[in-house]
Amino acid sequence: MGKLSHINDKGEANMVDVSEKSVTSRTARATGFVAMQPETLALATSGTAKKGDVLATARIAGIMAAKRTHELIPLCHPLAITKATVDFEERAEPAGLHVTAEVKVSGQTGVEMEALTAVSVACLTIYDMLKAADKAMRIENIHLVEKTGGRSGTYRAES
Length: 159
Description:
The protein is an alpha+beta fold. It has one domain (24-156): CATH 3.30.70.640. Helix content is 29%, strand content 29%. The chain has four helices and five strands. Helix 2 (54-67) packs antiparallel against helix 4. It is elongated, with a radius of gyration of 17 Å. The two termini are 22 Å apart.
């Protein structure tokens, strides 16, 4: 384990200076899962939930969150994101929605936090829109699946 980049020589938190880093194409993909009752899943995917179209709302919320990550995580750089997607896959066993976010940028720092934030907010939005039907929903297993670009190269999570 190397030195933490957000801690200076005095042990204080600081924003990393990326001014000397090369601009490269960088991507990150993150996933999470919202476990719910089968009836709740049917509400989410049918578009008939009381609050409206759950998946469309969660998709927009996730994309907006990726774009505003620097406002939520104190030491993140504001980035000119070139792509942000949030997708959903219905799962029957266990019942729920698998959420995937992919974020891209041409820049001097990566977009891992943006992808993780997009997934987190999309999952929270799903919970918010369906909580009247199922307060026992669980948000699970949010993690980075893959990142490319930059000095450290490619990372892929173990299956």
